[in-house]
Description:
With 116 residues, this protein is an alpha+beta fold. It is 37% helix and 15% strand.
Amino acid sequence: MAQFRAEFEETEPVVNVYEFDEAFFHEFRYKRFEAYTEEWAHFVYDHRTEPHGRTLHDYDIVYGPIANDRVGAQIARYKQGYITFDEFLRRIQYIKGITFQYAFCTQQAIEKLTKV
Length: 116
């Protein structure tokens, strides 16, 4: 992604690498999504369609599947009324190459990151 973005902006790519010790989880409010679930789909959809870009939760850290462009395309189809929510959920269940990510949503969570 950094390479693509850098080419688009005609600059050099920069990737920052951080470590996080999961032993700190007990200090935070966190949410874990272990798969593409209905709860995850609602969470992502609600945040992707929030008109003011506000965070709609009070978690310090959220972990779960990445809502990549393929998921984004299904969100758009659902939002535009082309598919039902059940169809949206069915389609994302079959997306190959599920990848997970952490979102550090508060300053106190960000402060636990160690730059490598």
